[in-house]
Amino acid sequence: MKKVSFAEFGGPDVLQLIDAEEPHAGPDQIRIAVRAAGVNPVDWRIREGQVLGAHPIELPSGVGLDASGVVDEVGQGAEGVEVGDRVFGEGSSTYAEFAVLSAWAHMPEGLTFEEAAGYPSVVETALRVIREVGVRSGQTLLVSGASGGVGSAVLQIARDRGIRVIGTAGAANQDYLRSLGAVATTYGEGWVERVREVGHVDAALDLAGSGVLRELVELTGDAHRVISIADLDAPEFGVRFSGVAGSVPEALAEAVNLISRGKLHIPVEKSYTLAEAPAAHIDSQAGHTRGRRVLVV
């Protein structure tokens, strides 16, 4: 089978499309014929060799955590799933023609494989940071870097819970943020004042790692009311860095619930082939994404 792999840490050029042995489902796992794989910032952070304790790896390594596809192998003890089922979930080395998933859910009706591949890690992260930052119904949440996959999920989940959201993003994504129910404002000079003009901020999330933690702490008045998923220097500001996943099966179940109720939709901004994985990483790393980027197999 074809698989994206890297034998050394480095830039996008270390990614190679290789011939590899097919993986097989172990106990409580399934294998899928991959139809699409989600491209997440954690993928290129791991490729660069950043210290991410939740994702220790050995070289050479495959790439990717999220995927959607058709079940073609069911491991011992895996229940409620059969060969031929359409599923999406999280596993390892998902930039490949076949991948093993350790957490999965059946795809909601009407969802394409490309769309489904963009949800697993994104929704888990969104649910986790909303919980960790402690924001409640009736309060206001500021989201820095709100137009990407996690931001798109955070805005919609927060609105469904009665939380007012203020989102920051580039000028081109202002209407997109408004379409998700956010009060939108741009980055750049004067952004703190623009946020203050639209109201008090109870909690804040840094999703882009754009060097705004000092300002987020200033706006909330409490470093404990700020969470970052993108700035490894967060502890220097007294801010918690959230990088260890919670329950992925629970997150997938909530994703199915939200999607089925019409409360969550994350668009796919661009699709790539497996051979174009380096380009996908370059684009992901550049930021300014609206929704998700995925690889189509």
Structure write-up:
The protein is an alpha/beta fold and 297 residues long. Helices cover 28% and strands 27% of the residues. The protein has 9 helices and 15 strands. Strands 3, 5, 6, 7, 14 and 15 form a 6-stranded mixed β-sheet that branches. A 6-stranded parallel β-sheet has the order 10-9-8-11-12-13, with helices on both faces. Helix 3 packs across helix 4 (149-160) and helix 3 (120-133) crosses helix 8. The mean pLDDT is 94. Pfam families: ADH_N (PF08240), ADH_zinc_N_2 (PF13602). Residues 10-295 form the Enoyl reductase (ER) domain.
Question: Tags for this entry?
Answer:
single chain, 297 residues, alpha/beta, six-stranded mixed β-sheet, six-stranded parallel β-sheet, 15 strands
Write the layout of secondary structure elements.
Layout: E1 2-6, E2 16-19, E3 30-39, H1 41-48, E4 61-62, E5 66-74, E6 86-92, E7 98-106, H2 113-117, H3 120-133, E8 140-144, H4 149-160, E9 164-169, H5 174-179, E10 183-186, H6 191-197, E11 203-206, H7 213-220, E12 226-228, E13 240-241, H8 248-260, E14 268-272, H9 277-286, E15 292-296
Parallel strand pairs: 8-9, 8-11, 9-10, 11-12, 12-13, 14-15
Antiparallel strand pairs: 1-2, 1-4, 3-5, 3-7, 3-15, 5-6, 6-7
Helix pairs in contact: 3-4, 3-8
Subunit structure: Homotetramer.
Protein name: NADP-dependent oxidoreductase
Domain Enoyl reductase (ER): 10-295
Low-confidence stretches: none
Mean pLDDT: 94
Tally of separate helices: 9
Q: Estimate the global geometry from the Cα principal axes.
A: globular
What is the ordering of alpha helices and beta strands? EEEHEEEEHHEHEHEHEHEEHEHE
Radius of gyration: 19 Å
Strand % is 25-35%
Q: What's the main sheet like?
A: 6 strands, mixed
Please provide the count of β strands.
15
Structural class: alpha/beta
Overall helicity: 25-40%
Separation of the first and last Cα atoms: 11 Å
